[in-house]
Amino acid sequence: MMLEDLRARGERLSEELGRESYLAGAGLKADTDFAGIFARYADLAGEEAWEAAHGHRALFEWAVDNRVARAVAALDDRLHAWEAGAEVVLPTGERLPYQRVAIAIANEPRRERRLMLDHARRRALGEPAAIRRERLAREREIVAPLGGGDYVAARASLSGIDLDALLEACDALLAATGDLYRDTLKARLRAELDLAPGDAERADGAYLFRGAAYDDVFGAGDLEPTARRQLAELGLDAAASGRIRYDTGERERKRPRAFCAPVRVPDEVYLVIRPHGGYVDYRAFWHELGHALHFANASRDLAFEHRWLGDNSVTEAYAMLFEHVLLVSEWLTRYTILRGDRLRAFLRAQLFAYLAIVRRYAAKLRYEVELHRAPSLEAGASRYAEILTTGTGFRYASEDALLDLDDGFYAARYLRAWQLEATLRSHLTERFDVDWFRNPRAGPAVLDLLARGQKDDAATLARGALGRPLGFAPLVAACEAALA
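RESULT FIELD:
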């Protein structure tokens, strides 16, 4: 297979997968057929594809993932079917669709019912956990030989990310922010939930970070108009000349979690959300807006792998860059009704939530590395609850061990994205002031960055375009300034 044939076939496969993901996630299609799609592109999982991709890191990693995806496609179809149709049964006999339980937990002020919902959710996880176990085993059979039998080494080589070095940085982050985080958590739990940290469960965290007290500030009907207004002031077209399509309506089978689905890059990109109002909706929407703007503004001149593939730390960093404007007081005073003490209380609460999620992912990376280095999945999974509980201060349950897991160490991409986002934000703030997000002089600079697609990995972009190394120091400093 010639390199250009690989690229052309790869783009067609990516488009079909993107459309299938959009239709299913948006609730427009009940069942997925990923297995059928991969069967039509079986050649992209073969030896000729691997040979053509050698010497091109992004293409070779994708070719390996293609082989994995084809091997697990039927399992993914089963998992989607389960998620779409499963119900959770409460001790009272009440039934809820599985996909609505997370929303119900985050919105439930009564702790007894909140825990009842979560415990019922966990009781339903036997089937999807078994599917995930089989899926992980198949993936490791394909990937681990590329690292001499070591899955972690193979993934580090494929991605170009030194996972052990990143893990060391994460451990340092957890240590540096530990006292500040625990003190703030103790105060928040006592004041808002009347709980001690050792008694708080993961479901309590979902409610605590929901931010229901600010629902009047973040109305569902204002979501898209506010985004369009901000981007217009920045000098960006929210629709990217029709390339970004917003799917914001209610639909029965629509996934509760917002997502961005690139179908043809840069020409057809979907931003999908099932809005319920509140800050969590806004945060999710702005995050996916960053993804959508990135894909829809990537240069057409870039090769397939530089528009579709590459280091996803980069697209996640742009998603976080736009999400993070909601933590800037100048943005909040311009686009919301928050003022004075209420504004300051909101910022403190949400910067704490920001630190909490970064710490959660730092702990997740530790767990995932240990899981994949353990002699068996069962042995590795046994560490999940302990590691996540220690990192977050909320009690995690072992039933989630194989479901709260990112493919191919995607947690590492998120962690590097937080590093890169802080660098991007500093760069834009220094050039265009703290309100860069509505400064028309910043618009061309933002578009120039987005147009690069994913040609550069996160470290190269930080050093080359921004002149800074990746690291957690800016993030730690911002949290200390806000919470100390």
